[in-house]
Amino acid sequence: STVLAIVDGIEDEVVNPDAHTWQTIRDQLERVNRLSRDVREVTHNSEKILTQLATKINPKIIASSAYAAWSPRMTTKGITFELDIEPDLPQLLVDPQRVGQVLSNLLENALRHTPTRGNAKLSARQSGGFVLFTVEDSGEGIEHNQLPFIFDRLYRGDAARHSDDTGSGLGLTIARSIAESHGGTLTASSPGRDAGATFVLSLPSAL
């Protein structure tokens, strides 16, 4: 709709096709492209044809890689970003790229919804035969009545964590599908608006 409105404005000569106009068009088309990819991936997950290349790996490698990837962006925004890895974690039998994709989605959400001078933390620990990757932030939080729905497809409620319009509404759906396809879970909790949020990815340790 945005692109069509701009094109109509250019044709009617009421919109100047300057650099800002073209950038707006590009941004909107990139959003459509991203949405298309996300819809395709969710469909593949639902049909149980998600490609996975499982290998034994130390959870520390996965967590450290995610931290290294997102630390510069956290720093640029002025967010204090902490990594906490419990020693001697058991190995996982997972697709590292897919698990990294889940953590990337969670950390992107934390970055997007945590204000400057806020805090974010990525941790990894073991509990009862599972390895728990936890992403915590001090950001906008999630209201209690919306927590049950945040993993639903295309859910974009009125909570603060949906206050921007840059996501497709599918990222958490895909992340949960990846977790479940590995025999794990992905859960969320929050004390409420402006009180931060916590996401926990739980994966069974390798036998």
Compact summary:
This protein is α+β, with helices and mostly antiparallel strands and 207 residues long. The protein has 5 helices and 7 strands.
List the helices and strands and how they pair.
Blueprint: H1 2-11, H2 19-46, E1 55-57, H3 59-77, E2 80-85, E3 92-94, H4 96-113, E4 119-127, E5 130-137, H5 171-181, E6 185-189, E7 197-204
Parallel strand pairs: 2-4
Antiparallel strand pairs: 1-3, 4-5, 5-7, 6-7
Q: How does this structure look, described?
A:
- This protein is an alpha+beta fold and 207 residues long.
- It is 42% helix and 20% strand.
- The protein contains 5 helices and 7 strands.
- The strands form 2 sheets. It has a 5-stranded mixed sheet with strand order 2-4-5-7-6. Strands 1-3 form a two-stranded antiparallel sheet.
- The protein is globular, with a radius of gyration of 19 Å.
- Mean pLDDT is 83; it is low at 158-168.
